[in-house]
Task: structure prediction
Amino acid sequence: MSSVDILIVDWIGQCYNDALHYSELAKKIGTKKPFEYWRNCTASIIMAALCIEAFLNEMIKWKLSEMDDELLSQFLSSRMGFDNKLELIDSLLGLTLDKSDKAWVQIRDTIKIRNDIIHFTRNTIFNDIQLENAETAIQAARDLIKKFFSAMGQDYQPRWKFIDENQSKSFDE
Result:
């Protein structure tokens, strides 16, 4: 007889907590150890961006699953860009996203920095890998999720719990 260990992960919450963790490490280390500082800022920005995109994917899948299995299947097999996902969730939920709002600008900046890191699209990316941008990325993730929960009212019941109150910082901080 064999046994199987099961690990259930709240991916969105884990990404958020990891972003916080790496940001805290960067803050503690400071620039006295530049490589470790840069590595932790990089990880924090990437994890916050993953949290943002995973949340949008979860929201789109949730809404499409209520509407049409064929649309859900098309979404799951597509490679939709971030801006298109924002527009899709905007139309699915009937929101009016103010793309000039500070929170939306921070979200877009976070995704741009993440893409520049991952795809190394510009040599000046190292200038953007700073604690300030890591903290902004974390705030952007928090703001995005709060905006959507607020816009949807009490009807939305997520399949996941965003953050474990015993880990890192509270989501409401």
In short: The chain is about 70% helix and 0% strand. The CA atoms of residues 42 and 129 lie 6 Å apart. The two ends are 47 Å apart (CA to CA). The first helix runs from residue 11 to 29.
